[in-house]
Design a protein that fits this description.
OB fold (Dihydrolipoamide Acetyltransferase, E2P), Aminopeptidase, 2 domains, 20 strands, 5-stranded antiparallel beta sheet, binds zinc ion
């Protein structure tokens, strides 16, 4: 007999879907959540959008999944938070939490007595991660950021959790999967450290969203749910199409200044190629960045400015 899906004051009975708000511990903040309770026993799957509130593809896809997933076709439960950083969204920050200017995906496991961001992180660690079996986190390029679609897997959790994460990623229709070296800090990384296999999808750029990208995100989530036998139907696996990238380079800007990148995301380049230049306000070259390996550009800052210590480029070695 399938059990009810209960979160705070919200209860979904078998075959039911209910939407409401979850309170963030020790704050006045409430964030939207949809509980979808299947008719048969099965795993509990968490889906989040809007951990970065200006990454709209994932937010819109998660919103539509809340409306479209049919509980009568599920074995298990699906819990969807379409907009985790609600206060950032309502103040149109570029993905930082409005109250404290922090990035949710750097602050896990959080702290119940900390700033708002730390309390949001703690709420997920306390209330959500212990009760789910799998996790999918939906992201996109922020307003200053372009990216080539890719899926992150767990690379620093327990071996069986890493393997389960890798298998989930193979059911995502993207060319590249990339194992993260982080054991915590990010939501899915920290959930992984608690034994929850998860993946993070990156699709879309510059805070733009399109019907095509939203549909692609939704189909990936549905396909992973099929792979996990939570949603009925045959799952596609993209073995042979998708490649694993291992050796990644995340570059932060050494100075604040004007940024002139040489390539676009998805471009390939040889070792030693000039990737971009930072100039000062007089037009003088401050710093040039050269590729340390032959690779592919995955993420790039495309705003005219880069900020000292801020993300600038992410590329990966492409062998053969
Ligand atoms: Zn993000």
């Amino acid at each position: 007999m399938k059990t009810n899906l209960v979160l705070d004051h919200l209860t979904a009975k078998p075959g039911e879907k209910i939407s409401g708000y979850m309170k963030i511990i020790n704050t006045e903040l409430e964030i939207p959540v949809t509980l979808i309770c299947g008719t048969q026993e099965g795993p509990a799957v968490l889906v989040t959008g809007g951990i970065h509130n200006a990454e709209y593809v994932g937010i819109q896809a998660a919103m539509e999944l809340c409306a479209e997933l049919d509980p009568s076709k599920l074995c298990g439960d699906v819990i969807i938070f379409p907009l985790v950083n609600r206060s950032g969204f309502e103040h149109r920050t570029m993905s930082m939490v409005y109250e404290d200017g922090k990035n949710i995906n750097r602050e896990f496991p959080g702290n119940p007595e900390g700033t708002t961001t730390e309390r949001i992180c703690h709420t997920f660690v306390e209330k959500i991660f212990p009760r789910v079996d799998y996790y999918m986190d939906l992201h996109c390029g922020d307003g200053y950021e372009a990216l080539y679609p890719h899926v992150y897997t767990l690379g620093a959790a327990a071996p069986d959790v890493n393997r389960a994460s890798d298998a989930m990623a193979r059911a995502v229709n993207m060319d590249f999967r990339y194992p993260s070296k982080n054991a915590s800090g990010g939501a899915y990384n920290h959930a992984g450290s608690m034994g929850v296999p998860g993946i993070l999808l990156e699709r879309g750029s510059r805070s733009l969203w399109s019907r095509e990208e939203v549909e692609a995100d939704k189909e990936d989530v549905r396909n992973v749910l099929r792979y996990l036998h939570v949603l009925e139907g045959e799952a596609k696996v993209y073995d042979g199409v998708q490649r694993e990238l291992r050796d990644g380079y995340f570059l932060e800007a050494d100075d604040t200044g004007l940024w002139y990148p040489c390539y676009q995301v998805g471009d390939r380049f040889e070792k030693g190629a000039l990737l971009g230049t930072i100039k000062d306000y007089m037009g003088n070259v401050v710093k040039e960045y050269y590729a340390q390996v032959s690779g592919i550009l995955l993420i790039q800052t495309i705003s005219l400015n880069v900020l000292k210590g801020g993300a600038m480029l992410s590329y990966c070695e492409l062998k053969d």
